[in-house]
Recover the amino acids of this structure.
């Protein structure tokens, strides 16, 4: 839209005009005597003019034939026509016809119908021509005392619009008239409009009025109260003498029944006062909104405000924790997560830990109810509560005792994440609190056979082997393990053929019984087994009518209840087999007089496990688990007194010494310390406040010493630009900033056409979150005037063009900048392409030039983020889309390649928290710098050691898009003997677009530093 159109257009209505009618056709309809025909013609004319058509000759026709009409529809359309019609000549002078228009408007301002008066006043609010408004001031002021509130309301806004546009000198008595109206007005909307005018034109009068009516403000309507709050915010800093009385008004309004007023009061109290009483009042208002409003968007907005308050007023918020927790009743997981983020951590203290744990425990129990089982998000909410209890009770052992046995019931859950969260919690308690070890381990031994997840079973077995010390506990654990493995031995064929054996065994037994009895009836039928195969089943019926009997010996054995531990071992879980062997061996070695029968049975289990691993298609004698089980068998055989070779005996003693050194507990302590540092809720930690760096040469502004000039003192409280100008620093710093900005923009400018083309086009793509602004510079390189120069754009990917560039006319050598707006809906590499068309006077047809393609960089939408290892593994197993990129790079160092990929994809190492990293001034949010990447690698001690000592490194990376999409990556790098790097990068995501786009990005930048700067 051109500047001329924007200047006179205050409304926009789309209209498919097709072939627009001529002025004569419209004039004929407007001259018709029927009001309905006039209204239709006027409506068509208005729509055509809004969409760019000009009908200057029809102005006089409308004045002659339409203005005198009394039809309501015609009057309404006339108001729109006066608003959009061109009122000036080409030289800027007002048209002569406007004198007649002024007369018509004056008649409408004195019309007997109050609606016509009010709508005319609304029209004058949009008029920006003083020569039209000047003769209408008197009737406008007379309407301030009209009997109808609709007229008075719009008259006030009309006076305010005139004063705002042309100054108070135009109507010097306006404040007095408005103040008198305010004192006697009974209509709430009119009173609000009058107060708004005083607020913006004469704040002293507005303050005086509020202070005189402060006891009645709380009884007025919400729209007036919001205007009062706006006055308080504007003038409180500039009028310290009245601050106390104005804040009293805010205190009174904080308990208003209007949610908008309550929210604005709370925001005003937080921004204007640091008094604990004021903050507490604001907190109460926020909590009331949080718990009583059903809209989740309102809850999220209030929670954002609470997070801001928490940064500066943690002590006041501590007492409101339980009230904020009431928002957990909301079914939205986003709201619940945000409530946890606010309340847990810095707000949990010894004073409220008991109440917090009791509430979280109650919420956990609610998730087990029958009603909650079918609720969407119930499982994720339960995981969130378990993590919250873990964070709360990890430092308070007395509270941990209240919830530990409740949480242990979740070990048998089919959901791996829930059970894994519980075992991590138990691991921390067992490691840190000796008095809880015995009861927890005993309970673990009792429910071990019901645990379904291999990861959870391995955690339990490791805890048994490391922390079981008492003889009775060890014997009970061993007995529980053996009970879960019986009947022995474990056979591979048992798992695969048990179901078929059951069916065919049934048939054989039935036939034998029938032959032996000679009498009776045998019925054979075909059945479909669980794995989809067919089998036969025979039923023998005795002649006396006794109950029918189906085979039983093989079937009973097949139907015998098997534990999940036994099923996992028979299914080929090598890691679990090795963990079971190590734990049983450790437990046996800890007891001096271990029962021989139980020891022999354990030895049978170990040999049985070794046989299973060795015979498996993926195993073998050199498999890691087979080697580990061999070491355990050697230790047990040596412990029984059997003679061993000297080398075997030395190896057994070496393992004994390693287990006796308690090195596992030392490593566990380091892991727990790292987990505490990276915890999303660190109890007792300070809330992160963005650091504001101030240079040593910056001026110090003493607010108390600043000159105050009424309302102007509120503006620029922290603004010291005048000091900068006084010492000449502003010019230099501004020039440096402009130079840096110009250099940054210049580096991103892309050439769309050639310099020899008639129209040279270059583009600059600027990213604003979900929007792209494409700035296109067009230069006419010819000696002719080019008309209708238009850039037609198209997109590929999830890009949608919202505003297209307009057509322009370029003189010889002239350049012009046009803009296009593009909406982005997902993280996907998009392409913008198109062509430029133009008309030449010498050419009969349009000419065109194809533009180069413009690629949207995915890095603008990827931000660094943090995620825990467990959550990473869960998402890795859930995400369906995977993109594998083979490593082909000229970089020879593993560390340099890893740093290069991380810096060019904004991906962070999984399991490491960087929430405290502060962005340097001018750095874009969420962007990784070389210093950030180096710091990550230095803190990841294990990865750094691998890079320095090993030829193979595997690292998990994570990032998140601004659209909330998760991007996972696993980089496996191997350094070959010739120094080259090989391997692969696997990317997984929930959607296809981000996986492919991130893969393309890595493919481009992996070759070396040159690609990274592209």
């Amino acid at each position: 839209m051109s500047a001329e159109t924007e200047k006179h257009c205050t409304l926009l209505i789309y209209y498919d005009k097709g072939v627009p009618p001529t002025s004569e056709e419209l004039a004929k309809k407007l001259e018709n005597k029927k009001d309905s025909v006039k209204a239709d013609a006027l409506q068509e004319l208005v729509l055509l003019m809004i969409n760019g058509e000009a009908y200057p000759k029809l102005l006089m026709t409308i004045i002659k034939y339409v203005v005198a009409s009394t039809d309501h529809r015609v009057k309404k359309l006339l108001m729109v026509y006066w608003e959009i019609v061109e009122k000036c000549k080409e030289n800027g002078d007002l048209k002569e016809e406007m004198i007649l228009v002024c007369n018509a408007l004056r008649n409408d301002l004195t019309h007997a119908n109050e609606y016509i008066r009010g709508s005319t006043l609304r029209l004058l609010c949009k008029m920006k021509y003083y020569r039209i408004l000047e003769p209408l001031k008197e009737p406008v002021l007379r309407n301030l005392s009209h009997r109808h509130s609709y007229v008075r309301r719009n008259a006030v806004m009309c006076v305010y619009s005139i004063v705002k546009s042309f100054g108070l000198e135009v109507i010097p008595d306006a404040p007095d008239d408005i103040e008198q109206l305010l004192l006697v007005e009974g209509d709430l909307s009119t009173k609000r409009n009058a107060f708004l005018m005083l607020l913006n034109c004469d704040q002293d009068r507005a303050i005086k009025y509020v202070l005189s009516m402060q006891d009645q403000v709380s009884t007025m309507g919400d729209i007036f109260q919001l205007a009062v709050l706006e006055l308080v915010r504007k003038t409180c800093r500039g009028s310290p003498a009245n601050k106390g009385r104005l804040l009293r008004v805010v205190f009174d309004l904080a308990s208003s029944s209007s949610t908008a007023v309550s929210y604005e009061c709370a925001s005003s109290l937080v921004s204007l006062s640091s008094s604990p009483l004021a903050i507490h009042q604001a907190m109460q208002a926020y909590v009331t909104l949080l718990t009583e409003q059903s809209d989740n968007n309102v809850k999220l907005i209030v929670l954002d405000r609470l997070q801001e308050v928490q940064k500066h007023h943690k002590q006041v918020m501590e007492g409101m924790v339980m009230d904020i927790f009431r928002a957990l009743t909301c079914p939205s997981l986003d709201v619940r997560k945000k409530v946890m983020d606010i309340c847990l951590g810095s707000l949990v203290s010894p004073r409220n830990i008991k109440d917090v744990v009791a509430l979280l425990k109650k919420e956990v129990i609610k998730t087990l109810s029958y009603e909650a089982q079918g609720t969407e998000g119930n499982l994720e909410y339960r995981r969130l509560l378990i993590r919250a209890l873990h964070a709360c009770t990890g430092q308070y052992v007395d509270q941990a005792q209240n919830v530990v046995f409740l949480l242990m019931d979740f070990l048998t859950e089919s959901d791996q994440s829930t059970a894994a969260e519980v075992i991590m919690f138990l691991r921390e308690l067992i490691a840190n609190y000796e008095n809880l070890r015995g009861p927890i381990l005993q309970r673990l031994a009792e429910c071990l056979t019901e645990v379904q997840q291999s990861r959870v079973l391995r955690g339990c077995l490791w805890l048994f082997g490391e922390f079981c010390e008492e003889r009775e506990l060890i014997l009970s654990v061993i007995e529980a393990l053996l009970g879960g493995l019986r009947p022995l031995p474990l056979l591979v064929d048992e798992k695969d053929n048990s179901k078929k054996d059951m069916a065919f065994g049934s048939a054989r037994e039935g036939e034998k019984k029938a032959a032996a009895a000679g009498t009776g009836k045998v019925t054979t039928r075909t059945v479909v087994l669980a794995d989809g195969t067919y089998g036969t089943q025979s039923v023998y019926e005795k002649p006396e009518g006794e109950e029918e009997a189906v085979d039983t010996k093989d079937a009973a054995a097949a139907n015998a209840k098997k534990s999940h531990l036994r099923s996992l071992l028979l299914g080929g879980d090598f890691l679990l087999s090795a963990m079971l062997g190590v734990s049983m061996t450790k437990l046996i070695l800890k007891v001096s007089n271990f029962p021989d029968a139980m020891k022999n049975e354990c030895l049978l289990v170990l040999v049985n496990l070794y046989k299973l691993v060795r015979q498996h298609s993926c195993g073998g004698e050199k498999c890691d688990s087979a080697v580990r089980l061999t070491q355990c068998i050697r230790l047990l055989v040596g412990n029984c007194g059997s003679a061993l070779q000297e080398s075997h005996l030395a190896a057994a003693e070496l393992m004994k010494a390693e287990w006796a050194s308690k090195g596992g507990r030392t490593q566990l302590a380091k892991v727990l310390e790292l987990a505490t540092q990276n915890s999303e809720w660190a109890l007792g930690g300070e809330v992160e406040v963005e650091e504001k760096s101030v240079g040593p040469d910056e001026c110090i502004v003493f607010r108390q010493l600043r000159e105050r000039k009424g309302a102007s003192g509120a503006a620029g409280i922290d603004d010291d630009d005048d000091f900068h100008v006084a010492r000449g620093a502003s010019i230099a710093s501004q020039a440096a900033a402009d130079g840096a900005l110009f250099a940054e923009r210049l580096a991103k400018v892309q050439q769309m056409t050639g310099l020899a083309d008639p129209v040279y086009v270059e583009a600059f793509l600027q990213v604003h979150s979900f929007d792209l602004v494409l700035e296109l510079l067009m230069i006419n390189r010819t000696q002719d005037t080019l008309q209708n120069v238009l850039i037609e754009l198209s997109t590929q990917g999830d890009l949608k063009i919202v505003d297209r560039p307009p057509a322009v006319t370029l003189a010889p050598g002239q350049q012009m900048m046009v803009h296009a707006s593009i909406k982005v809906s997902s993280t996907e590499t998009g392409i913008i392409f198109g062509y430029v068309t133009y008309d030449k006077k010498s050419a009969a047809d349009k000419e065109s030039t194809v533009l180069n393609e413009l690629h949207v960089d995915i890095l603008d939408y990827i931000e660094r983020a943090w995620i825990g290892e467990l959550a990473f593994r869960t998402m890795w197993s859930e995400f369906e889309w995977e993109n594998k990129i083979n490593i082909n790079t000229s970089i020879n160092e593993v560390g340099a390649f890893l740093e290069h990929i991380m810096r060019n994809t904004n991906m962070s190492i999984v399991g490491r928290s960087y929430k405290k990293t502060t962005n340097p001034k001018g750095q874009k949010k969420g962007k990784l710098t070389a210093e950030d990447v180096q710091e990550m690698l230095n803190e990841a001690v294990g990865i750094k050691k691998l890079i320095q000592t090993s030829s193979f490194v595997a690292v998990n990376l994570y990032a998140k898009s601004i659209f909330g999409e998760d991007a996972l990556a696993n980089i496996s790098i191997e350094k070959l003997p010739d120094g080259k790097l090989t391997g692969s990068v696997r990317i997984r995501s929930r959607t296809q677009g981000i996986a492919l786009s991130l893969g393309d990005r890595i493919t481009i930048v992996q070759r070396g530093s040159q690609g990274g700067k592209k």
Q: What stands out?
A: The mean pLDDT is 80.
